[in-house]
Specification:
Length: about 425
């Protein structure tokens, strides 16, 4: 396996929206999905001659700095919540004004993370889906760094607290990652095959092949640990703490048998074609994804714009269909838009006909999400679900689970095939109830 890890620009916020408030806040959700120039520039922000003027909440494109632009965005609607990961500036300029219009009781039910996050993009070749979730997060887990993990069609994204960025780099260097000479060595790291093998071999006896994500001091609100407690020495100890905490908070693993998910990507409008386009003949092809280089995938500048936007780089039918799907308040839809990556969707199979030919992906395979409702835990503790993924990968190693993962603001979902999800529930049930 050869993995490349790069930090994306900008700081991110996580937003939790209860499902009953989703219709009320649909407008700001759609606003952050729009090309930014159009969504920032409001009619009242134009002078008499039609030229834009700046205000506190709306600015012309030329006034946007690099941190105002959109390197990463995820919007997820699940049976538990609506979750948004967006630029911190967008949480402030778009969502906070919308929240101020709500009744105080309703406003208090929406949560915006107090600390900011940065996103790492992980591109790996020759690594199965389950191994990615487990092995890529292990170095950070053993360093005590909390993460949110989002699997997309071509890449994996790991969100870490901004204040822990230096610790992340140190943890990756300690586990065999190397800086690569790509013109910006401060933001790109790679893990050669030898580095991964050395790391896994050195931790084989300590259980570090499985993963668990914790946060220093994150247990002090829920058990007897304190912020000064030593970090667990191996993955087994980490997982023991994880399931003890989940059990104490009465967190259960649930599967909605009516949900059948598929993983898809948006078509590109450029001449570049994606290697390994998915065929319905392979039921697991969507999980054995091809490697995609960090190249510009769009069609260049168009329509007089001085900056390429998402609409310039994808089939605009996808955008129209996405807005239509969001307007229906879908039971499950997760869309990720990331810098230099084609759009990625994990969605209820019942929604696929709505998108027509605007998607590429596996038409025949069906996935089932295992949900953990973590509303009783603080934001930083939600990464704990990666520990559940690690336990499943270990307990189901003989079955070779094709496992992926979706973090949301107040919950997490382990994504497996429908057959493997039943086995996973059999494993998790006793661990969460204490019948072990």
């Amino acid at each position: 396996m050869n993995a490349q890890v790069s930090f994306l620009d900008g700081e991110l916020s996580l937003i939790h929206i209860p499902l009953n408030l989703y219709p009320t806040l649909l407008q700001p959700i759609l606003q952050i999905l729009l090309p930014q120039k159009e969504s920032i520039l409001q009619p009242e922000d134009e002078q008499g001659n039609g030229s834009p003027v700046a205000s506190n909440s709306s600015r012309s494109w030329s006034q946007l700095g690099p941190h105002d632009q959109r390197p990463f965005l995820n919007v997820s609607i699940t049976p538990i919540e609506c979750s948004v990961v967006c630029q911190t500036t967008w949480a402030t300029s778009v969502f906070e004004p919308a929240l101020q219009k709500l009744q105080q009781a309703a406003r208090g039910k929406v949560s915006i993370s107090k600390e900011s996050y940065v996103a790492l993009c992980v591109i790996s070749a020759g690594m199965d889906a389950g191994s990615r979730v487990v092995d890529l997060s292990s170095p950070l887990a053993l360093a005590g760094i909390s993460i949110f993990f989002i699997t997309t069609y071509y890449s994996d994204f790991i969100l870490v607290p901004s204040k822990d960025k230096k610790n992340v780099v140190q943890a990756l260097l300690a586990r065999g990652f190397e800086f690569t000479d790509n013109g910006d060595s401060s933001s790109m790291m790679s893990l050669p095959r030898s580095g991964l093998g050395s790391y896994l071999n050195s931790h084989a006896n300590s259980g570090a092949g499985s993963t668990m994500v914790s946060r220093r001091g994150s247990y002090n609100e829920h058990d007897n640990a304190t912020p000064d407690s030593p970090l667990p020495s191996n993955a087994d100890e980490l997982q023991e703490r994880t399931f003890a905490l989940l059990k104490k908070q009465s967190v259960q693993a649930t599967v909605d048998t009516s949900l059948r998910l598929v993983h898809c990507s948006g078509h590109e409008t450029s001449s570049h074609r994606l290697d390994g386009e998915i065929s319905a003949a392979s039921p697991t092809a969507h999980l054995n994804r091809p490697s995609l280089s960090r190249m510009n995938t769009g069609n260049g500048f168009s329509n007089g714009h001085s900056h390429r936007t998402w609409v310039d780089t994808v089939d605009t039918r996808l955008y129209t269909c996405l807005v239509a799907a969001l307007a229906t308040q879908p039971k499950f839809l997760s869309v990720t838009l990331a810098q230099d990556d084609p759009p990625s969707l994990l969605l209820d199979k019942a929604l696929v006909p709505m998108f027509g030919e605007s998607l590429i992906g596996e038409a025949g395979g069906e996935l089932a999400p295992i949900f953990l409702d973590l509303a009783s835990l603080p934001f930083e503790a939600t990464g704990i679900v990666s520990g559940v993924a690690g336990r499943l990968a270990r307990e189901m190693s003989d079955e070779g689970p094709e496992l992926s993962y979706l973090s949301t603001a107040r919950a997490g979902a382990v994504i497996l095939s429908r057959e493997q999800s039943a086995k996973a529930i059999e494993i998790l049930g006793p661990l969460l109830s204490g019948d072990t």
